[in-house]
Amino acid sequence: MKVLVDCVPLVSGGGVQAAVAILAGLLRQSAVSWNAVVPHALRAALPDEFAADVRVTFVQRRSQADSVWLTNRLRQIERDFAPSVVFTVFGPPFFRPRAPQLTGFALPHMLYDRDSLMPRATIVNRFGDMLRRALFRRAGHLVVETETARQLLAHRLDIPLARISVIPNSFNPLLVRTPEMETPPPGPFGILIPSAYYWHKNLEMVPEVAADMRRLDPGLDFVFRFTLDPRIPQWAAIMGRARALGVERHLATLGTVKITALAQAYAASSAVFLPTLREVSTAVYPESFYFRRPLVTTDMDFARELCGNAAAFAAPRDAGDAACKLAGLARSQQRRAQLVSAGERQLAAGYPTPAEKLRMQLELLAKVAAGATSAV
Questions:
Q1: Quick check: helix, strand or coil at residue 203?
Q2: Average pLDDT, stretch 160-184?
Q3: Is the pLDDT of residue 365 over 70?
Q4: What is the rounded distance in angstroms from the CA atom of residue 172 to the CA atom of residue 288?
Q5: Is residue 358 part of a domain?
Q6: pTM of the complete model
Q7: DSSP β-bridge partners for residue 314
Q8: Exposure of 49 by Cβ count < 10 A (0-12 exposed, 13-18 middle, 19+ buried)?
Q9: Are 46 and 112 contained in the same domain?
């Protein structure tokens, strides 16, 4: 089997991690022949070994205006490589190949009704979603990471369930846990927020959470550590709100963290917080379980499916509830230990290992290539 991995639609966040994971897996096996097309913007996120690999083609993607040029470039690469199947890690894809195509879906805002939790839709947003729906509907076969997402995708985009498969997420194979990482370091109670900026991650709520934690427990020494580029306007806005609330010393950013350095960010934390409002899936949950860090996240359907009883759940956009859960963790070694143990069980029962996930992906790609797909 020959697989062309299409990473062109990816920009940041979980999609980049998913691309790095499958490329790392392909690099370490010999049964499948592969090529990959990767935007230059993602180059810094890839391990150094990919930069010199002739199977990886880097392309320039500066804006949506490059879509016509990129479509032609992808078609040329397909002609030259002649793949059995094309895997667009997360769509919508820029092109429709001659070969069978498997496309990942990770746009949670398209699966839920628009409500007060979501930003107001502009005409541009609505037109963009119409185009994305059309592109996903014409995709040959889709893959998502949870059964919740599969059911919602079929319902919202009117796609037959037989054209949608489920392959659960996993922690990234490049993340390595060492014995020294078992115990958090001394110092402030470090709360890691490992997320790129998207509106649905609800990161703007964190200053209010910090203010409520300080009111609940004035003697608690804690710090929220983001993984945001300090130059982006959203970080300036978050810190502006923190200063207004007098909690700026409780917020910091590590900057954009490469996959290979993310393990140390988990090791330096005492807990993980993800106040997300919309997800198809997220690697933060299995990563928290893998690194044995207690997790606080939002009480939503996707979070309950993915975490079971291995997280402390806070009501959506309720800063006081999130502060109560986090302060309680900081003061209770027993509660932290309970969640860590539950996380280990959830990781074993609900998530494949990176090697198992790669095997599942290759098996599904083989079925797509053979035209013998059915939901798995």
A1: helix
A2: 92
A3: yes
A4: 12
A5: yes
A6: 0.89
A7: 298
A8: exposed
A9: yes
Nearest by Cα to 278 from 297, 252, 253: 297
Alpha helices in 111-194 (DSSP H): 123-138, 147-157
Say what the pLDDT of residue 129 is.
Answer: 81
Mean predicted confidence (pLDDT) in 56-70 = 79
Q: Which residue has the tokens 């490589």?
A: 81
Task: Give the CA diameter of the chain.
Answer: 64
Cα–Cα distance between 256 and 11 in angstroms, integer? 13
Q: What sign does the CA torsion over 173, 178, 183, 189 have?
A: negative
**pLDDT value for 375:** 45
Q: Are residues 314 and 360 in the same domain?
A: no
Residue owning tokens 């807990």: 271
Q: What is the CA radius of gyration of the chain?
A: 21
Inside any domain, residue 274: yes
Residue 22's contacts (CB-CB under 8 Å, 6 or more residues apart) are: 5, 87, 89, 358, 361
Q: CB burial class (10 A; 0-12, 13-18, 19+) of residue 375?
A: middle
Pair 189, 223: CB distance under 8 Å: yes
**Where does the pLDDT of residue 95 fall: very low under 50, low under 70, confident under 90, or very high at 90 and above?**
confident
Domain of residue 95, CATH code:
3.40.50.2000
Average the pLDDT over 150-156 and give the result: 93
SS3 category, 278: coil
Query: Based on the structure, what is the number of domains in the chain?
Result: 2
What is the domain extent for residue 328?
179-350
Closest CA to 142 of 156, 122, 159: 159
279 & 364 share domain = no
75 is written with which tokens? 């078609």
CB atoms within 10 A of CB 65: 8
The residue-averaged pLDDT of 354-369 equals 96
Q: How many Cα neighbours within 13 Å face the side chain of 245?
A: 23
d(CA 278, CA 201): 7
Q: Work out the percent of the chain whose per-residue pLDDT is above 90.
A: 67
Average pLDDT of 128-156? 90
The reply to whether 375 falls in a domain is no
- pLDDT (tens digit, 9 = 90+) per residue, 193-252? 999 898 889 999 999 999 999 999 999 999 999 999 999 999 999 999 999 999 999 999
